[in-house]
């Protein structure tokens, strides 16, 4: 019976040792995962989602009354697409007058040019006759004077034609300013004008969001400048009042060489601190929108 009891104790001992060993391995794995999850960031900064160049406000280069609006807010537009148009009635009238003046100048110039061959033949014929003694030299000289006068008139008509063409070109260039085109592919964020409204030169007509990847503009406190480097990975979280939602990870692409005043400082009671803008690009496109406030946690390793 003692032998049986001894064997039982040995079995219990082996089982107990095995259980403790298994528990130790499981504990070690949990501790390792916990260490990764609780890894402290090198730096933390507030930021805002944006695109390179930011939102772009477009305006007409010349004052005028808005006549047509070809797009709507939220609409996707392509580069070169017509967005807004100013009233073109005065332009159309000026263009018709300029085109008419150019047509008259062309007609006058062509009429003078058509006379030249006949005048040249007459001058040459009279010159030959005068040299042969069949006619007075004075008649030949007069024919040459008439030819020279005609050539002078052509030069004047050519100058007037060039002036009329230049005037038309200037009017057409001014007409191009009445049309507002998209300078790049974008989304129409806001339209600041309505049909019939007068817009001054440079007054914002609409706002575009360029079709570019979303980036993070983080405000890096000067105390972190030596810790954050280009190429570092970062965790980006939406800055809610109650909690934080993870977005895609990002990497630092550039750090500004100049200080600016903080625009995202949480404590409004304090004067804005000195910060440096840090730009991050997402590793994958985030499911969010431009303008969202975020918290950026920088890490030495991915």
From TrEMBL:
Keyword Coiled coil annotated: yes
Similarity comment text for this entry: Belongs to the membrane fusion protein (MFP) (TC 8.A.1) family.
Species this protein is from: Acinetobacter rudis CIP 110305
GO CC annotations, alphabetized: efflux pump complex
Annotated Multidrug resistance protein MdtA-like barrel-sandwich hybrid domain residues: 63-207
Keywords for the protein's UniProt record, in alphabetical order: Coiled coil
GO molecular function, one term: efflux transmembrane transporter activity
Lineage top rank: taxon: Bacteria
InterPro entries recorded: MdtA-like_BSH
Name of this protein: Multidrug resistance protein MdtA-like barrel-sandwich hybrid domain-containing protein
Stretches assigned to coiled coil: 102-167
SUPFAM superfamilies, per the entry: HlyD-like secretion proteins
